[in-house]
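Support reply, case 0932

Customer input (verbatim):
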Amino acid sequence: MIKVARNIGLDVKLPEQECNDQKCPFHGTLSIRGQIIGGIVESPAMNGSAVIKRTHQRYLPKYERKLTLFSKYHAHVPECIQVKPGDTVKIAECRKLAKTVSFVVVEKVNP
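Our regenerated output:
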């Protein structure tokens, strides 16, 4: 049986593969809400999840310098999206999937 990827309401390209993951926003029943964040995959070593690192800069007027800060997010990676360390991805907020996982990867930005 061929599953058709459903529209999740974001301007992202649909995955080319199919999956049977219930936590997939395209082929499962997971709904997306809240923030959309871009970042770089730091470690896809978790079972079905990955660590995404987002860097941003803040200006410090006292020292007249920019301070580079980073945030780490744990995100679920559906079976239809393959990621490796160094890939740039978009993650979207969803319901809590585990103790620390409340985001899901919706698009791999770089080819």
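We compared this against your earlier run and they match. Two observations from our side: DSSP finds no helices and five strands in the chain. The CA atoms of residues 41 and 81 lie 13 Å apart. Please reopen the case if you see a mismatch on your end.
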